[in-house]
């Protein structure tokens, strides 16, 4: 009990020194709390992001209409038809509803099912429809707004969503666009699960964010070390031992870190109000989504003060606090390279399964391992940059000799102790390495796929199912009358069964102009039929001339048709714009009549007239007027890289923000080091040393670690990014894309160095020689 009381007394004394130590003590406490607070805010954000994704996915699953289907109509069933659309680049989720009984289920967030001709909309969609920007969208969604969807039915506050009543829905046909009958909402698929590229990006981003944060916290707890050490020496003079002084130092650090925790919590609470602006997959978040889990919160609340105390005590290991003063700068053993090099090598070994394309059998375990492996491996590789930089600086400056006086002052200072200078630029170096790694992977997996048929062409693809009275030629005429449309080509595609083995193949019917576009035919006349060679060794021609076909998917009773024995075989065209490029048989309307057959669908290619600022929206309006459930594809955008392009555009801003935080720490550290060398600087000035010489010596002390650290950051970042990019078999589009990030890091260091010059000149005044 006496020991515990002694510990408590010493810690309380440290807390009292932290808050009542005069202006200098309060400044040190405030700087430490500010640094720790920024780091804690970033840690809370990193801990809350998985919870935010889970909350949004839970809401997406709760409104799913693809999990609880019903076999027959009842008093508690509902017909649901997908009616999604896109408006000026933004996705709109839409559903057409028809209740089949008084107890039909309601979507989450909807108090009453909309009547025919009415709809319930999200607040964001309501505002869009009421604005001038939504004029074209109002033509597509002419329903009267009868209600608003609550937050529990939305993925995010800015999501565009509507539920519209439609009494024309009926379950018919076998195509995937038919209405579905459900007994309840929920058990849906939710948001798409992250793929390998997204998981790797997430892991690398976590490592690139958390390591600079750790460096920031580690730097913050070292602020004001000289004044603290002199105060501890005074305690030794009045009888305290070494253990007591270290407990007092721990108490000061605990106080500053607890204030930093409070500040970090306040910063996080304020920053999460901007969650709606953090868009992921086109939708933001609700502020309440960003709530760290209990375990993460406990680890941060307990771990940050504990880590701060450990770092503070570790910094005292090379300081001898004696009753008559503090002895620093004792001779240190030479740094060893082997264990420092082992850190990044271990990280690359952890990442080796990606490079070797190894896969774990269990899918769940595979995804979990991908995430864990990405975080661990990326962290170790980036940590290798941190561990190798001090050794590299020491090994280089040990061999440097000669030069002008400013250079010799800088080199001698680094030869005596290169640790502070290396630590000062470590945060910038690791931030640059992480940004380069993320940029390399992002540029590789987000590179646009080669689409020779889409380059320089404005083509819209429309896919729909056909009713008994629908005809492709009439539908094509409706699109030809749309504003800004140059030409329209259309094909009817129908799954048919071969006689005998009932193998399913596709029959495509269209005029000669459309068939030429689909297969590059040299000659065509109405009444012709063509058999397609798919070019696969196993089954190059699935349908032979003279084959008997049933014009029904199941091969049952119904119309039959025989492929003419004189039908020529044509080679498949991989550059075709049409989706039914895998059709086994191509025919003209006079050869076979497929109108009114079940399972028939249509594919149309709509050529637009450039310029076309809103022609695409007019095409979507025409499609919506024909019927719901049509798939609209703007073919030049089908590479799937738009979201990666957005992330690649955000990356420089994220890197700039991270570097700005680390730069603040670097500036404070530089000024603190100058304050500790106040007397030597004043002595140099008193002996007539020009200010420019001392200023250049400070510049060289920063420039040398930077000149060594930036190549190390580039090598580490490129090695990490390309090792994780290799499993995707994609080239790096721009091998020098990292140069802007390196330039940004160098610019930050240059600004910090310039900002440190005014305090340097002030500390070179003669009053710096006063004795205390």
Features:
elongated; ten-stranded mixed β-sheet; alpha+beta; 772 residues; 13% strand; seven-stranded mixed β-sheet; 19 strands; 19 helices; 50% helix
Number of strands: 19
- Overall shape: elongated
Q: Termini distance?
A: 40 Å
Uncertain segments are: 357-370, 448-456, 638-642
Relative helix content: 40-55%
User: Structural class given helices, strands, pairing?
Assistant: alpha+beta
Q: Kindly state the mean pLDDT as a whole number? A: 77
Rounded Rg: 35 Å
Main sheet summary: 10 strands, mixed
Strand content: 5-15%
Number of separate structural domains: 4
Please give the count of helices.
19
Please describe what this structure looks like:
This protein has 772 residues and is α+β, with helices and mostly antiparallel strands. It folds into four domains: 1-64 and 198-330, no CATH class; 71-182, no CATH class; 363-448 and 641-772, no CATH class; 459-637, no CATH class. The chain is 50% helix and 13% strand. The chain contains 19 helices and 19 strands. Strands 10, 11, 12, 13, 14, 15, 16, 17, 18 and 19 form a ten-stranded mixed sheet that branches. Strands 1, 2, 3, 4, 5, 6 and 7 form a seven-stranded mixed sheet that branches. A hairpin with a 2-residue loop joins strand 2 and strand 3 (90-99). It is elongated, with a radius of gyration of 35 Å. Mean pLDDT is 77; it is low at 357-370, 448-456 and 638-642.
